[in-house]
Amino acid sequence: MKKIKTIRINTIFILVVVFIFLCLIFKLVWIGTGNIKVKGRTLSDFANDRDTVKRVTTAPRGTIYSRENEILAKNVNSYTVIAILDENRTKDPEFPYHVVDKKLTASKLSPIINMSEERILGLLNTKIKSCDKDGKNCEMVSPYQVELGPGGRGISELTKDTIEALELPGIEFVGSTKRYYPNGNFLSYTLGYAKSNDEGDYVGEMGVELFYDEELTGENGYVEFQADIQGYQITSVPNVEQKATPGNDIYLTIDTNIQMFAEQAMNKIEEVSHEWATISVMNAKTGEILAVASSPSFDNNTLEISSYYDPFCSYTYEPGSTMKIFSFMAAMENGKYDGNAKFKSGRLKVDDAVIKDWNGYGWGEITYDQGFHASSNVAASNLALSLGRGPLKDFYTSLGFGEQTGISLPNEGKGLINFRYNTEIVSASYGQGITVTAVQMLQALSVLSNDGVMIKPYIVSKIVDPSTKEVILENKREEVAKIASVETVEKTIDLMRGVVDGRSKMSTGTGYYIKGYDLVGKTGTAEIAGGSGYLKGSYVRSFAGMFPGEDPEIIVYAAASKLSKAKTLQTAIKSLVKDVGTYLNIYGDVKETDEESFTVDSYISDSVESVSKDLEGAKIIPVVIGDGEKVINQYPKKGSVLNLGNKIFLLTNSSKYKMLDIKGWSRSEVNTYAQFLGIDVIFDGTGYVTEFSIEKDTEITEDMILNVTLNPKFVDEVKLEEKKDEKKES
């Protein structure tokens, strides 16, 4: 049998081990209760003073553009200058990330942010009291960072670039944004506006900004980091960052030049007393809204708004005699119209009511064609009674009256097409007792420019992801329904031409006649309802027109409530039609050549001299920027189609650029020029350049701001027309 060995553990050894173990436990407890200090601070204080900070990075809101890619609404960056003072920010002395030379930094920044060197230096030498948790062991230390205000607050992108070029260690920027509308009081209701909410996010509250708020709003990101008790970032701990996703960009169908013409026309209306007014221009073939001007209007940047509803799509009103276009068409489509048939004008008894022509006595026995020219209520009433309630209402409904068009604008009105009794039927035929919107009128008028097919109006051409350039949505011509025959359309256009060209002595629209322009149209004067009846002497005056009548390209509709001078609407619309016709070269004003348009080629790397000579020979105006010999950039790009007399901008390989004479240029032309120069522009007014702040031949530098005064181009022509009207009235 083996002998078992017994190992005995010394009692003293056991006691020593237990003692060491107890000492370790005591040490840990001692440390945990805050008895170890590092630079005067306990570990528990250090742990308690650490915090995880999550800062939201606001996503840029999408930009709104015109059809020519001119910016109509955008986010503008502003910055606050920050100086990092904590030396711990720097890990490598060769590449400092804190302010090293405070005096040099102050002297360099002083002239840029408009603060004295002493004031900046005082901020850079700021000290704060730092104590432990118990308020003991205090010392004066530099804060992690300071803000260089007030001069360093709200600086522009250009100023930021200037400061960055100095390469001053420790100088950084905190960015913020605001929504900015470069053109001020321009397309105000259509654009609407966006305001910052309590979280700092921009939210659309009117117009396209509201309707497409979700599309314009991006997805916010964030930066997560460890901060000390004073809120400053602990640089030794890495950040966690999720980048923000910008909102989508929206491109409108609005043509800024045609919009400018509409605004100029509205300026004429605003010179006389009125309650509200709307003027709109639409591409007659596609349904694209090219311009919308409203009064009262507002500056989208300052938001002094008297009404939050858009006269173009939200106001509903009785349209008056412009509705005769469609009641006469209804009679034609139902076989109830004979233009040569005669009727007794003046008065018509319908049940217990007496329908009167607008002059109270009529024109005796006239034909129905003449009745249209004269805007006879009796003629329209006779046709309506022959039709009956059902066919008339059905035709109105088929044109979209009584329903929203679906245009991409908020608060669109429906109007009311509801009549039963004979008196209501006849009043509906001449536009009383029913209500419409301006955009409904445009949609209905499109039937006349598309061989009887109604086209849906639209104001947004596409929505684009700015990061990927993917087209999220694209709108195109949309046919709603076939409403009328070609014969009905041709007859109606001929009747509308007679209203304007004065073929009948009683034609009501001769004040809209423009020699050489085949403008066809219909006038309207509707009494305004109020209380238990109509307001005496208060009217909504309107004009529905298109040109050229032979094959309409443009539809114009205008309405104004309580306009004190009826002739003003004529003057405004005639000016608008002339400007749009000239701009679009509809009537071929350039007679030196058979060509009406010019297709742009690529001129990059070509000789400036030869390109300029070729363009001038093709009736295109070359705008040469710089004194270089070669073209290094151009606008418009290859493939663009221009009207003769338009400009092509040619940037040359020059070392310096001098200010050109831009008098007479349009807003969009000035914007293009400024983008090539890399300078900011501030506009005042609408129209074309009459004054500009940078003297001709001045060498351009990046810090320059170009102030431009705009005024209507055709002021003298409009004044001449007004004088003619005044002579006729007298």
List the helices and strands and how they pair.
Elements: H1 11-32, E1 37-38, E2 41-42, H2 43-49, E3 51-57, E4 64-65, E5 71-84, H3 102-113, H4 117-124, E6 128-130, E7 139-141, E8 145-147, H5 157-164, E9 171-180, H6 188-191, E10 193-196, E11 202-206, H7 207-211, H8 213-216, E12 221-227, E13 240-242, E14 249-252, H9 256-269, E15 276-283, E16 289-295, H10 324-333, E17 342-344, E18 347-350, E19 353-356, E20 365-367, H11 368-373, H12 377-387, H13 389-398, H14 422-429, H15 438-445, E21 453-455, E22 460-464, E23 471-474, E24 479-482, H16 486-501, E25 520-530, E26 533-547, E27 554-561, H17 567-583, E28 597-599, H18 608-617, E29 621-625, E30 631-635, E31 641-643, E32 647-652, H19 667-677, E33 680-684, E34 688-692, E35 705-711, H20 715-729
Parallel strand pairs: 4-14, 29-32, 33-35
Antiparallel strand pairs: 1-2, 3-12, 4-5, 5-8, 5-9, 6-7, 10-11, 12-13, 14-22, 15-16, 15-27, 17-20, 18-19, 21-24, 22-23, 25-26, 26-27, 28-31, 30-32, 34-35
Compact description:
This protein is of the alpha+beta class. Helices cover 28% and strands 26% of the residues.
